[in-house]
Design a protein that fits this description.
By secondary structure, this protein is α/β, with parallel strands linked by helices. The chain has helices at about 1-25, 50-60, 80-90, 100-110, 150-165, 180-195, 210-220, 230-235, 235-245, 255-260, 270-285, 305-310, 320-325; strands at about 30-35, 70-75, 95-100, 120, 145, 170-175, 195-200, 225, 250, 265, 300-305, 325-330. The longest helix has 24 residues, at about 1-25.
Amino acid sequence: MKSTVNGLAIAAALLLLAALPAAAQQSGKMYRIGYLNPNPGPSVSTPPFRTPVFIKRLSDLGWIEGQNITLEYRFGERDEAKLRNGALELVRLRVDVIVAISSSSLRAARTATATIPIIAIDLETDPVASGLAQSISRPDKNVTGLFLDLPELNGKRLQLLREVVPGLTRVAVLWDPSLDPAPLKAAEVAGRTANILIQPAPVRRPADFNQALRGATAQRAGAIMVIQSPMLDMHDRDIADLAVQRRLPSIALFRRFTESGGLMSYGPDLNALFTQAADYVDRILKGAKPGSLPIERPARFELVINRNTAKTLSLTIPPSLLLRADEIID
């Protein structure tokens, strides 16, 4: 009889412990999550870019908008001053954590506060070299999140272009100079290693796309590599169409570019990054310090090839490359 009572007591204690996180989230406090994005805000009918994935993951973790969290959105409208003001507004609102999308948002948030935790989805910055973190395993500051290993990634993308275009010697790199220049520098390093000349093609707004690709053709580039940014992501179909018009094989970071008509994409799953960002927010709201949360690199990269675009460009994709592709679009 005594052992039965003890067993029931232990079971009850375990159930109580399991319920503690949920109970803490229902304690009545309303947490504020700042969301800083350099892009224009959404239209009435369009949710902020990728946030449905982020919000769903928060909900799965027990954080429900309007019940125990409030999301404070600030958009830069592709204006650095507005982005900085947005970051300062989030600080004045005393948000509990800031999610910063891209290097420009991270830069604005980090300038605005050295104490509020910042979760970054930054695919342009080297966090250690830039001084944002002491190390990948222990950032030791108020910034953590998701960053890319840029030199390795750009080297791989140049290799993929050369497999499709044997003898490739010149590649134009489309990039947004308002962001951290680290990806362009990494591309130049990768180009020297591969004996490929990198031709920077800066674009600050969509109106620059046509001129940039015209310049790439004039300089005899044999292909184009897109260094992703929030602004370029929003106009991936325009870029893909212009690349085809200019007869330029193209590669970008995310599958959406290939789905929009680009030749190839090689990079992480963007939805997975926003899911991971929500996991970081969950840990921060439960008491973790950003300086003790290791920075994460994407663990898996996917190769997507648009075979229809290859046919339009009169390119033959090597069978070995098709076998390695995660998806082939016809």
